[in-house]
Amino acid sequence: MLKNVFWFIIVFTEFYCMAKKIFYSIIALFAILQLFQPDRNISNENFKTELANHYQIPDSVETLLNKACYDCHSNNTDYPWFYNIQPIGWYIQNKIDKGKHKLNFSEFGNLTKKEAVDELDNIKEMIDKNTMPLHSYRWINKDADLTIEQRHVISQWTTDFSKQISNDSTATLNKDSSLQNLPQ
Ligand code: HEC
C-alpha cells in the first residue's frame, strides 16, 4: 500500500514537472514569435493610377470594391487589431501579398486595354461564382459579405465597363483636372 502511494507521488511529480516545462516552452515560443511582425501594406498616397482616379467609376461600384476588395487588392490595407498577434498576422499578410500581386486596384491605370479587359473578366468570374472576397475575410468583416444585389451591381459594371474600354478607352478616362498632379 505504502509502495503504491510512493509510486503515485513519483509519477505525479514527474508528470507535473514535464507539463510545466511544456507549458512554459509554449509561452516562450509564442513570446518570441511576437518579435517578428510582418511588413504592413499601408500607403496614404492617392495614386493617379487608382482605378477611380484613372477611370470614371460609378460611386456605388467604388464603394462596394472599397469595402469588400481593397484590403487585399490595393496599396492600403485597413488592418484589424489581431494582426498584431503572430502567427495570425503572418497568415493575413500572406493573403494580402498574394491578392495584391494578382490584382492591384491602386495600379489599375497601368494596365493596357487588353489587360484591363482580362482583369474585368476575372473579377466578373470571381463575383458570379461568389469566390471573392475570401470566406475567412467575410466571417470577420460582415460588410464585405456582399448581398446578391451588390454582387449583381459589380458584375454588371464589369460587363459595361469592359465594353466601354474595348470600344473607346479615352471615353471612360477620368478627366478631373485636380487629379493631374497626383503621383503615378
Ligand atoms: C482577404 C483578402 C482578399 C479580399 C478581401 C479579396 N481578395 Fe481577391 N484575391 C485574394 C487572394 C489571396 C487571391 C489570389 C488567389 C490565388 O492565387 O489562389 C485573390 C485573387 C483575386 C482575383 C484573381 C486575379 C487574377 O488575375 O488571377 C480576382 C479577380 C479577385 N481576387 C477579385 C476580388 C474582388 C472583386 C474582391 C472584392 C469583392 C476581392 N478579390 C477581395 C485575396 C482577397
What can be said about this structure in brief?
With 184 residues, the chain is mostly helical. The protein contains 7 helices and no strands.
Structural features, described:
- By secondary structure, this protein is mainly α.
- The chain has two domains: 1-33; 51-179, no CATH class.
- 56% of the residues lie in helices and 0% in strands.
- The chain is built from seven helices and no strands.
- The chain has helices spanning 2-33, 51-54, 59-68, 88-102, 113-128, 135-140, 148-167.
- Helix 3 packs across helix 7 (148-167) and helix 5 runs antiparallel to helix 7 (148-167).
- The protein is elongated and about 95 Å long.
- The chain starts with a helix and ends in a 17-residue tail after the last helix.
- The mean pLDDT is 93.
- The structure holds heme C (HEC).
Features:
184 residues, mainly alpha, 2 domains, 7 helices, 0% strand
Largest sheet: none
Mean pLDDT: 93
Q: Count up the helices.
A: 7
**Runs with pLDDT <50, length 5+?**
none
Assign a percent range to the helix content.
55-70%
- Outline, from the CA principal axes? elongated
Structural class: mainly alpha
How many beta-strand runs? 0
User: How much strand?
Assistant: under 5%
Rg calculated over all Cα atoms: 25 Å
Q: What is the number of independent domains?
A: 2
Distance between the termini: 84 Å
Query: Which series of helices and strands comes N to C?
Result: HHHHHHH
Present as ligands are: heme C
Multimerization status: single chain
